[in-house]
């Protein structure tokens, strides 16, 4: 049992560790946000389609029209969320985006209450309040320095879309993740093709970083999904703090982007909120 738990912890840590480089790769791609989103979607769609074909998973497309409609809606929400991450990183301090993204589980709790009729636990309500305070601190900093409000707003929208996506995936657990991720990538590519001025005006160096971004996202997804077989979702949520902490470190080490002190303070509140929400569930499981 202990070895299984350690395996789950390792997979979760590795998966979130891999994806913590995401914001850095957006910066290194050094292209227009719509162009980055186009190729991010393209590589996500192609790589996941390739994995799907290798796995040989059958019956991934629901036969019922209502279910087919819902799986396409989730794929579209996922694609929009992916684009919001790119645009938010481009228009604000990347550390802000990562902190906002970490609050997606709390928006998920609200959507679970509205859609799945699940009660919000007391500790979750406290965690939501703490994380909202952290968001207010970061927004207050953006008002004071100016120029980051659009990116911060997109970061909040990103967390909302991610929370909605997580809730719908819990409601429709039988839907294929392979199909959803692949379709979301192609949705994103299609939308950005009409938004971007010229998606083909990009250097080989930028293409390399974008391919690496798509590949790392697929690897991270497999590691994180694999971890849920051995540890609880609350424990996986604790490991999501790795991205919140390490993404700004990679940005500082590789390109010298230093987050403001108020961003770090707001991030600390969000990290504390994640632990407040997860601790009672982890404690109950270990009893």
Give the tags:
mainly alpha; 287 residues; 82% helix; single chain
General description of the model:
The chain has 287 residues and is an all-alpha fold. The mean pLDDT is 84. It has helices at residues 2-19, 22-29, 33-55, 65-91, 94-102, 104-115, 122-145, 149-171, 177-195, 204-227, 233-239, 241-255, 261-286. It has one domain. Helix 3 (33-55) crosses helix 10, helix 4 (65-91) crosses helix 9 and helix 5 packs antiparallel against helix 12.
**Kindly, what is the distance between the CA atoms of the first and last residues, rounded to a whole number of angstroms?**
14 Å
Helix coverage percent: over 70%
The shape, in one word, is globular
Question: What is the number of helices?
Answer: 13
**Largest sheet: number of strands, sense, barrel closure:** none
Q: Which range does the strand content fall in?
A: under 5%
- Please tally the β strands and state the result: 0
Total number of distinct structural domains: 1
Q: List the uncertain runs.
A: none
Helix and strand pattern: HHHHHHHHHHHHH
| Protein structure class | mainly alpha
Please state the CA-atom Rg, rounded to the nearest Å. 18 Å
């Amino acid at each position: 049992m202990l070895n299984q738990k350690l395996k789950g912890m390792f997979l979760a840590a590795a998966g979130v560790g891999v994806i913590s480089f995401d914001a850095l790769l957006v910066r290194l791609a050094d292209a227009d946000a719509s162009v980055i989103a186009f190729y991010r979607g393209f590589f996500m769609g192609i790589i996941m389609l390739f994995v799907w074909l290798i796995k040989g998973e059958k019956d991934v497309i629901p036969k019922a029209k209502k279910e087919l409609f819902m799986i396409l809606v989730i794929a579209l929400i996922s694609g929009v969320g992916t684009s919001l991450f790119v645009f938010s990183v481009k228009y604000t301090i990347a550390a802000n985006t990562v902190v906002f993204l970490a609050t997606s589980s709390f928006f998920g709790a609200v959507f679970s209450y509205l859609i799945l009729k699940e009660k919000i636990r007391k500790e979750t309500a406290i965690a939501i309040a703490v994380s909202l305070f952290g968001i207010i601190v970061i927004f207050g900093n953006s008002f004071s320095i100016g120029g980051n409000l659009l990116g911060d707003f997109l970061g909040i929208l990103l967390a909302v879309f991610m929370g909605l996506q997580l809730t719908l995936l819990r409601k429709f657990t039988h839907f294929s993740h392979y199909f959803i991720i692949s379709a979301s990538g192609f949705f994103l590519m299609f939308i950005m093709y009409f938004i971007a001025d010229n998606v083909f005006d990009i250097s080989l160096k930028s293409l390399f970083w974008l391919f690496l971004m798509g590949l790392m996202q697929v690897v991270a997804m497999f590691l994180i999904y694999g971890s849920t077989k051995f540890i609880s979702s609350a424990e996986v949520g604790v490991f999501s703090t790795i991205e919140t902490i390490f993404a700004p470190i990679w940005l500082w080490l590789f390109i010298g982007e230093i987050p403001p002190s108020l961003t770090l303070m707001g991030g600390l509140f969000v990290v504390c909120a994640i632990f407040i929400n997860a601790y009672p569930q982890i404690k109950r499981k270990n009893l």
